[in-house]
Write a structure and sequence with these properties.
alpha/beta, 17% strand
């Protein structure tokens, strides 16, 4: 059943290593199945604290959407289906992704689903994200110096700064008000 729907499709899984509200470094990464292609972003404790200081309300779904945006915006041609893990409320994450990609036809031609939908389609409630271990690698090894990072899989880290996230957060807020 699910095999026919995904046959000859490149499926991108996105996952986080820790919850965004936890006071720990967080790795957010994708892995494309059936390839070995992956990429990740590291949110340091300092960066997460800066985000909390900029907003007095819960903005984790927006942050997750923004990080996903930066992860996939240059790689739209590499996948057909996007599976987002339920680290934040999927419906909100999808809503904010739709805002960030509102002028991107390629994004709107992709199938986007939650890991829960994938489990339901497959009938297997135990399916886990293929990006889980990759996200953990980014969290653990990403902050280390390049020399110390060379053990294990090569990491493809996207650098992100607080100002980049704030810029997109303001975009989400202004479009949501319209």
């Amino acid at each position: 059943m699910i095999n026919n729907k995904f046959k000859n499709k490149r499926v991108m899984h996105i996952d986080t290593s820790t919850k965004l509200y936890e006071n720990k470094t967080t790795g957010i990464a994708y892995k494309i199945i059936p390839t070995r292609i992956h990429k990740g972003i590291i949110l340091s404790k300092k960066l997460k604290k800066g985000l909390r200081n900029k907003s007095n309300k819960k903005i984790n779904p927006q942050i997750y959407s923004i990080i996903i945006y930066y992860l996939i915006k240059e790689d739209m041609e590499k996948f057909d289906i996007l599976v987002i893990c339920a680290d934040e409320r999927y419906k909100l994450v999808k809503k904010y992704l739709d805002i960030l990609f509102r002028n991107n036809l390629e994004y709107h031609n992709k199938k986007i689903m939650s890991i829960g939908e994938l489990r339901q389609m497959s009938g297997n409630k135990k399916i886990k994200s293929y990006a889980d271990s990759i996200a953990n690698s980014y969290r653990k090894r990403g902050p280390k110096s390049i020399k110390r990072r060379q053990v294990g899989i090569d990491l493809n880290i996207i650098k992100i700064q607080l100002k980049d996230i704030i810029l997109k957060l303001n975009e989400i807020i202004s479009v949501s008000r319209e």
